[in-house]
Design a protein that fits this description.
By secondary structure, the protein is α/β, with parallel strands linked by helices. The protein has 2 domains: about 200 residues, Rossmann fold; about 90 residues, Orthogonal Bundle (Helicase, Ruva Protein, domain 3). The protein is about 45% helix and about 15% strand. Helix 10 crosses helix 12. The longest helix has 17 residues. The chain is globular.
């Protein structure tokens, strides 16, 4: 865990005043999840994604999603070679360990759906053949507010593939002052040193799956799931897969705390980032506020 602590410290020198968001991002990746960063332009979404890849020592590629992007631009294409008389696979940028899908909601729904198989199965199909992706494999996507011009809301099936959705928001005043007076973030990015390698991340992921979940803790998660399914609160409650996502993310959070078992506090810490993007309020109210009230009212067994 020393490598994780070093990586965490490095990212906190890059993204100022956002330790909670950085820790959530680490927990998400340790849980083998994909991360959606949803916020206004210019608050550090892309910098955080690039920084995560750099400190983890993973291969990294970035795709700028635009309205004219095609699915083949992401997964690749087979091209006929006249000299050999055979088709040769030209792999797309998805064949990497960390794929930054920048401004994912500026691409068409057809292109967004091209990531579905990659995110769920860790493989892609090109011309009827399946091709495995590197391991570990993460998609870190950034998204602008849907009310901005030129954006296409992500469908529910795509949102559900992201283990967490986080926001950075504006930095605290003192952190922003340090940002204004400090060095350019791109220069700092170039000097970031890997704190771990791909093998270390795979080991952490394996250890996270062994974090103990007691029957009482499982009952608490079940109570939370059932509370979201109460009539009139949300359009539809959390699914069983969302419950599995809660357990996986809580295990990642517990790992960062140095524990080999889950506590209710772990579930509470990751509940909103895991649940909010999977729900729609039945009366149009704020989903996050409704989940905070729900979390306060559901008793711990």
């Amino acid at each position: 865990m020393q490598s994780v602590a070093l990586a965490y410290r490095q990212l906190n020198t890059l993204i100022l005043g956002k330790p909670q968001a950085i820790r959530l991002a680490f927990a998400c990746l340790i849980a083998r999840g994909h991360l959606l960063i949803d916020d206004l332009p210019g608050v550090g979404k892309t910098t955080l994604a690039h920084g995560l890849a750099a400190v983890m020592g993973l291969e990294y590629r970035r795709v700028q999603f635009t309205s004219d992007l095609l699915p083949a631009d992401i997964v690749g294409v087979s091209i006929y070679q006249r000299d050999s008389g055979r088709f040769e696979l030209h792999k797309g940028p998805v064949f990497t360990q960390v794929l930054l899908a920048d401004e994912i909601n500026r691409a068409s729904p057809k292109v967004q759906s091209a990531l579905l198989e990659a995110m769920e199965e860790r493989q892609v199909s090109i011309d009827g053949e399946s091709h495995a992706l590197p391991s570990p494999f993460f998609v870190i996507a950034t998204q602008n507010p849907t009310e901005q011009m030129g954006t296409f809301p992500l469908p529910e099936s795509q949102l559900d593939r992201f283990l967490m959705r986080i926001s950075l928001g504006y930095p605290p005043r003192e952190a922003e002052r340090a940002l204004l007076m400090g060095e350019d973030r791109r220069s700092l990015l170039e000097r970031l040193k890997p704190a771990m390698q791909a093998g270390a991340m795979l080991e952490l992921q394996g250890r996270a799956t062994a974090v103990i979940v007691s029957p009482a803790l499982a009952e608490y998660v079940l109570l939370l799931l059932e509370a979201t399914r109460s009539p009139g609160r949300f359009v539809a409650g959390l699914s069983p897969r969302a419950g599995q996502a809660l357990i996986a993310a809580a295990r990642g959070w517990a790992m960062l705390s140095g524990r080999d078992h889950l506590l209710p506090e772990d579930v509470k810490a990751i509940f909103l980032p895991v649940a909010a993007h999977r729900l729609q309020s039945a009366d149009g109210s704020d989903v996050a506020s409704a989940l905070e009230r729900l979390l306060a009212n559901v008793p711990v067994p």
